[in-house]
Amino acid sequence: MLVFGGFMAQKDGKKELNIIGIIPARMGSSRFPGKPLAKILGMPMIGHVYKNSKSSLLKKLYIATCDKEIADYAASIGAPIVMTKDTHERASDRVAEAVEKIEKETGEPVDIAVMIQGDEPMIKPEMIDGAITAMLEDQSIGVVNLMALIRSADEQNDPNCPKVAVDRENFALLFSRKPISSFKQVCVMPFRRDYLLKFSSLEPTTYERDESIDMNRFLEHGHKVKMVHSSVETYSVDTPEDLKKVERLMAKEFSVPETSIIIRTYNEEKNIDNLFKALKDQSYRDFEVIVVDSGSTDRTPEVARSYGAKIIEIPSRDFTFGYSLNLGCREARGRYLVFASSHILPVNNDWLKNLVYPLENGKVAMVYGRQLGVPESKFSEQMDFQRLFGASAVNSTVPIDYANNANSAVRKDLWEKRKFNEYLFGLEDIDWARAMTKEGYLIRYEPRASIYHIHTEAWHQVFNRYRREAIAAVRIGLKEPPQSGVSYLWLFERLISDIVASFPNWSLKRVEEILRFRYYQWKGSRTGWHQGDDINFESDKAEVFYPLDNKSVIIKGKDKAEFKEQPLPELNPGDVLLSVDYVGICRTDLEVLEGTLGYYRDGIANYPIVPGHEFSGTVARIGSNTHLQERFKVGDKVVGECILSRDSANRQEVGVINYNGAYSKYMIIPGDALHHIPAGLDPKVAAMAEPLAVVLRAIRRIKERLKPEASIAVIGAGPIGNLAAQTLSLEGYQVSVFDKNQNRLDLIKDKVKEVGVSLDHLPKFDALIEGTGSKEVLERVIRDSKNDATIMLLGFPYGNIDYNFEDLVGREKVIAGSVGGDSQDFPKALSLLPKLDMRAFGESVFPLEDFEKAWEMHRTGEYLKILLKP
Q1: pLDDT score at 648
Q2: What are the two backbone dihedrals, phi and then psi, of residue 38, each rounded to the nearest 5 degrees?
Q3: Which of 204, 310, 617, 623 is geometrically suited to a Cys-Cys bond with 578, CB 3.0 to 4.6 A?
Q4: Pairing mode, if any, of strands 19-25 and 8-11?
Q5: What is the DSSP secondary-structure string of 8-43?
Q6: 867 vs 849: CA distance, rounded Å
Q7: In sequence order, what are the residues at sequence separation of 6 or more whose Cβ sits closer than 8 angstroms to the Cβ of residue 152?
Q8: β-bridge partners, 174
Q9: Is the model's pLDDT at 866 over the cut of 70?
Q10: What phi and psi, each to the nearest 5 degrees, are found at residue 190?
Q11: In this predicted structure, what is the pLDDT of residue 815?
Q12: To which H or E segment does residue 725 belong?
């Protein structure tokens, strides 16, 4: 019986299969040079193939090429790349080389490699699923090839369309470019690994050369090719004429809109429903809607989905105005990009038409529309709207300081040339408009594209809005904030002007509102204007610091580790790039190496991975998130959390599960997982904040059951046991420590009540903390502990234990486990470290490249803790 789940296929309890997809591509096509990067609907063809080939049965999808141009594009879309020789004439030979390289790189043997030709942009994941399934259902099949109906006489007679004749069991008889009575070949071909390599080693044959079709080599050498029918209408691209045909078909299939509306949201459930209702009533209908949501905790995404919008969800830590817009723009299919705030409402049904139509003038780069207040708007803001957004249209060729992405439209082709600045705290719209005017384009103000802009801000929000805009104004070189001023004279003039304008509807309440709004507007602008000189905008320094030299220790598989160059992933707005100062060796690192850690046995974690979760570092670059830019400076000393997500569906632990760790010169980590090292604390000692946080969390989990002066046994005097014993002793508990290693007991004996080797007296303890990970020790702890004992498990890995749980219930014992520390534990750990005896934790430091020697030293137990220094 075959069972399919995710990318894995399993048969009769045997090993899971490693199934990968490979898209071979080269620029030097004889019939269509440069074909892989030829654009279809604005995207290079190979981008469509990669995007449309993500079958759930594939563990990973690669692009194999010999051309730098293709590799550069593949990298830009996040596709894994395999560089191959430039001498391959056949795609299958390129795939065979790629398979061997992938196996060498990952340390994992490939079971099935699916060749997906780079000229099949209309492919669908279900086509790949069907081809793989056919192979899995018949173990005797070495290669499968898809085929489809020929739908026209032109296609039948086209020599650029390969055909295949099949027998009654759908095995191939002949592949030909001649108009034979047949099906057309669809170039999706799963190969069993050994079959592929054997095929690649076979001599080319006569029919293969005559027809220029790889698969004839199989047939002429006496091998079978299983053909599987695909009902999906698809066409390959062999010539520029094919490209035009496919583009027309894809445009029709996907109903590519002229305009893409991009809306940024965060907890806008109350407003966004009204906005979507207004969009439904617009006279201009050729649009799609993309919502970029920054971690809403209300029903914003659900409301948007109910109207058919495409949703892009990002963590709130990754939000910046420019980053969110750029994400939406990348997904947009329209040639015009409209930006609308989630708290605006069009004044009439022609808003969108009036906003978009000026872009038909090739000289116009951007259009922004009029903004009006609503009765609930603050009076002074309504005055600003009247001042900034008048009744007359304007075409500007000079830098404009009032363009506003709450209500604007730009050309996508120009956005592709210049993305929005992701490091600004606001005013990304003005920054972009100024750049376009320098290129000679027009910025149009179109008052007929009017919206109501609904701000319901508290006073601190008014302050912060104008503060960040003032910081951005400094950043882009404005002479003053665009909607405010920083002088006392400006404040006085605005107050008098607003109060006079409020007549005849003058009231004390309105005057109070005017005073408050103008004060917080002025105060925020003034504060931000001065802060702007101090904010550390590291993005200006030549991409600041993406280091070329980033040597890392990479565990590629069980007992396979190497020291090599490791490219860094993209720095998201909520991330920080660290230069690693110290990383502690933990037993978990070796359990990852040896494959004994349960996460790797159970498939929760996968190789390759860079280990290391106990670390200190120096901030080298800061993501563009506003809060990070204000919270951190380049050069700050920090430590980081290990547990990034406890969610079982997407579990991430630094250096352990699905997230590369600190055995590296540089590492990237979410900024909200970092904590400043207090002044005066040695970074070597600070690296121990993570294991101490583990201890603090464990103690929190059993604290309610610990009476004052409770007797506690700590079993295992390693780093975790040592820290637990010291911490509990400081809190006044009667602590005893047990270990077979006398040297480790000597390190702790002066800080606890007693130490020992024997476990004969376990029944006298109120609580027991097991930190060895030994199955035998755990069995004894559970068996010998007294009634109502509290047992905390901190060791890994225990394995399976046969235990009578009736005894556990009858004797009313409480057993708890704890993994990692939480964010709240790190500040306490950093403040507690100076109070502990940490001398033994920094005695042995190895260079990172000597990691294997350090691991061997760790295994001897001679040192309590060994550190690596990149």
Answers
A1: 56
A2: -65, 135
A3: 617
A4: unpaired
A5: EEEETT-PPP-EEEEEEE-S--SSSTTGGG-EETTE
A6: 12
A7: none
A8: 165
A9: yes
A10: -75, 130
A11: 92
A12: helix 719-730
Asked if the model's pLDDT at residue 628 lies above 90, the reply is no
Query: What's this model's pTM, rounded to 2 decimal places?
Result: 0.59
Task: Tell me the C-alpha distance between 691 and 724, whole Å.
Answer: 9
Of 233-242, 566-575, 694-703, the poorest mean pLDDT is in 566-575
Distance CA 593, CA 338 (A): 50
Q: What is the DSSP letter of 755?
A: E
The candidate with the shortest Cα–Cα distance to 494, out of 478, 471, 473, 515, is 515
DSSP helix, strand, coil percent of the chain (3-state; round to 5): 40, 25, 40
Instruction: Look at residue 856 in the predicted model and tell me its pLDDT.
Output: 94
Q: Which residues contact 595 (CB under 8 A, 6 or more apart)?
A: 557, 558, 559, 601
Q: Which CATH architecture has domain 691-822?
A: 3-Layer(aba) Sandwich (3.40)
Rounded to an integer, the average pLDDT of 369-393 is 89
Tokens of 41: 């609907």
Structure-derived torsion over alpha carbons of residues 284, 285, 287, 293, reported in degrees to the nearest 10: 90
At residue 584, the 3 state secondary structure works out as strand
Q: Where are the domains of the chain?
A: 2-249, 257-456, 461-535, 539-688+854-860, 691-822
Residue 395: pLDDT above 80? yes
Which residues, 6+ apart, have CB-to-CB distance to 659 below 8 Å? 609, 644, 652, 653
Q: What confidence score (pLDDT) does residue 667 get?
A: 93
Are the beta carbons of 866 and 614 closer than 8 angstroms? no
Taking each helix axis from N to C terminus, what angle separates 851-860 and 587-594, rounded to the nearest 10 degrees?
Answer: 110
Q: What is the pLDDT at residue 198?
A: 85
Count CB neighbours of 62 within 10 A.
Answer: 24
> What type of residue is 266?
Y
Of the given ranges (100-109, 163-172, 565-574), which has the lowest mean pLDDT?
A: 565-574
- Class for domain 257-456, per CATH? alpha beta
According to the CATH classification, is domain 539-688+854-860 in 2.40.30.20? no
Alpha helices in 418-575 (DSSP H): 428-438, 459-476, 488-501, 508-531
The Cα–Cα gap between 436 and 364 comes to 9
Cα distance between residue 492 and residue 542, in whole Å: 42
What is Dmax (Cα atoms) for the chain? Answer: 97
How far separated are the first and last CA of the chain, in Å rounded? 50
Calpha distance 776→763 (Å, rounded): 17
The DSSP line for 102-156 is HHHHHS---SEEEEE-TT-TT--HHHHHHHHHHHHT-TT--BEEEEE----HHHH
Banded pLDDT at 447 (limits 50, 70, 90): very high
Cα four-point dihedral sign 66, 70, 72, 78:
negative
Residue with tokens 């780069």: 365
The closest alpha carbon to 672, from 696, 647, 640, 645, belongs to 640
Contact at 8 Å (CB) between 654 and 662?
Answer: yes
Q: Which residues make Cβ contacts (< 8 Å) with residue 398, sequence separation at least 6?
A: 437
3-state secondary structure of 78: coil
Tell me which fold the domain 2-249 belongs to.
Answer: Spore Coat Polysaccharide Biosynthesis Protein SpsA; Chain A (3.90.550)
Task: Give residue 462's pLDDT.
Answer: 87
Nearest Cα residue to 306 out of 266, 275, 335: 275
Q: Do domains 2-249 and 257-456 have the same CATH topology?
A: yes
What is the distance between the alpha carbons of residues 4 and 131, in angstroms, rounded to a whole number?
A: 14
Confidence bin at 254 (pLDDT 50/70/90): low
pLDDT band at 535 (very low <50, low <70, confident <90, very high): low
Q: Which residues pair with 669 in a beta bridge?
A: 576
Half-sphere exposure of 780 (CA within 13 A, CB side): 13
Cβ-based burial of 758 (10 A; exposed 0-12, middle 13-18, buried ≥19) = exposed
Find residue 712's DSSP bridge partners: 735, 767
